Amino acid sequence: MKKAILLTALLIIGVVYSCRETDLDQFNPNQLTPDSYFKNGTEVLSGVNSIYALLQGNGLVGREWFFLNHLRGDDFTSGGGQLETPRNQILNGVHDPANYVLNEVWNAAYRGIHRANSVIEAAAKLTDQNDVLAKRAVAEARFLRAFLYSELAVFWGGVPIYKAVASKPGDALARATEAEVIAFALEDLNAAEAALPASYTGNDLGRATKGAAQMLKARMQMFKGDYAAAKTELQKIVSSNLYKLAAKYNDNFQEEAEWNSESIFELGFSSVGDINWAGDGNDPAWGNQERMVRTQEYSVTGWRNLIPSQSLIDEFENPSKGDAKLDPRRGFSFWVIGDKFNAGKTELTDGLVQGNTTVIDGKTTKVSWAKYSAHYKMDPGGYNNLGINYRIMRYAEALLSLAECENETGNTAEAIRLMNQVRARPGVEMPAYPTTRFPCRNKDEVFIALVHEKRVELNGEEVRNRDLLRWRRQNKLAAAIQPKFSYTFENRHLLLPIPQSEIDNNDKMDQSNQNPGY
Fold this sequence. Notes:
Layout: H1 8-13, H2 34-37, H3 41-56, H4 64-71, E1 76-78, H5 85-91, H6 100-124, H7 132-156, H8 178-195, H9 210-224, H10 227-239, E2 263-267, H11 294-297, E3 306-308, H12 310-315, H13 328-333, E4 334-336, E5 340-341, E6 346-347, E7 358-360, E8 363-365, E9 367-369, E10 390-394, H14 395-408, H15 412-423, H16 443-457, H17 464-473, H18 500-505
Antiparallel strand pairs: 1-3, 2-10, 4-9, 5-6, 7-8
C-alpha cells in the first residue's frame, strides 16, 4: 500500500487500550467505539489498515524493529560514537529490562496485537457474515497478529497471549510458554493461508498474501526445528510459480523496482510526509509516518549509526582468499570510499563520511551500508528518509530456506541445486557449488555452504540474527561457523529481558517470570 494508509481506525480502535495503559477506566461517551463503527467489510478493512500503519511506525518496521534485529546479529557493528547508548548496549550484550529499544518493540507489538484482536472481534459481530471483504480483512489481521507473536517468540520466548481485546486491568494475562506462542501463531497462519488471496493489484499491493503466510509458517517451523513441516510450506511457494528472483540484485532495495517478482511480503513507504520523532506510543499520531528512516540511520553521508561488521566483509568470496571470483553482492551491499553515488555524479570521499573504519581488500577505509540507501540516485546530504519499501520476506530466502530443509531431510543434491539457483541470479552469477572453499561432499559441508550463502545473499536483512539463534539452540554452530560478536555470548543472550514495565504493571507476572540472567 504505497499510498498513505487509512488511519481512521487507529483512532477508533485506540478507545480500548491494552492492559498496560494507565487510563483504562476513562471513557468518552461521545467517541465512536468498535461496536458502533464496524458495520461492514469496508470499515473492518480500515481497522486492518491501522495495523499496517503501526508496522510503519517507529516502534516496529519503521525503526526500532530493524534495529533490534540488527543489533542482535553479527552483520553489524557500531558506526562510531554517535550510536545511542540503548542501541550500543544491545550491540555489546549489556542491555537490561529497561532498555529503550526493546521496550519500544514490545509495546508496539502488543498495540498491533490489540488492534488485530479488535478487528477480529468486530468482524464476528457483523450482520452479514458472508461479507467477502470482511473475511479477507480478518485473514490479514490474523496474519499480522501471527507476525507480531512470531517476533515476540524469537526475541523473548514465552510471552502473554492475548486472543481477545483487553479492556480493563483485570484482563492482564500470565506469561505463556514459547511453544504455546508459536503454536498460536501457526494456528493464525493456517487460517490466514486458507483465506488470503495469492496476490493483489493496484492500491492493495503490500497486503498479506497466501505466500506470505506460508513463508512465515516456514520460518516458525524452522525455528522449532521441524524442517519437514517447513519444507512443505516452502515447496508451496516454489510450486506456485508466482515468484522468481528479481532481474537485478539491487531491485530488492531500491525504489524503482518495488513490488517486484521476488517480493513475498513488502511494507510500503513513500516520500510523503516526514518521520514523527516527537511523542511516544500513547500519542495516536506517533506512528503515522510514511517515510522509511533506515536510509538516514545507516546513511553513508549521514548518521551512519551502524556499519557492516568486519566478519561480514570477510565472508564474501574473493580471489585474494583463493576463490574463483569476487562476489558482486559485496559491491551491491556496501559503499566504499571512492565509489560514485548521486546517480554516478559524485565521488564518495573520506571527508564526507564520519565514524569508524574497517578493512576491505587489505585497505583500512570506511565501509557503509548501501542497501535501502538513497545515495544510488541522489545526494541526500545527512538527512533523508526516502520512501523505499521494506522487503520483509523475499523469494531468495524461500529458496535458501528450502535448501536447508532439503539438506536436513537427507536430500543434499537438491539443496545444492537450490543454492546454485540463487548464486546464478542475474548480475551475480557466482560459480556453482561445489567450490574449492565449499566442497559440499556431505550434509555438514553443505550446511557450511548454506550458512555462507544465506549470509552473503541476505546480509543486512532481518534473517541472520534469527538463524544464529535457532542454529545455536539446535547445536548446529560448529567451530568453523561461529559468529563473531563484540562480547562473549552467554546463554542469557538467547532471549531478551522481559521489559521491567511489563513485570511491574501486569499483576499476573512478577520477577520470577523474567528471562534467565536478567
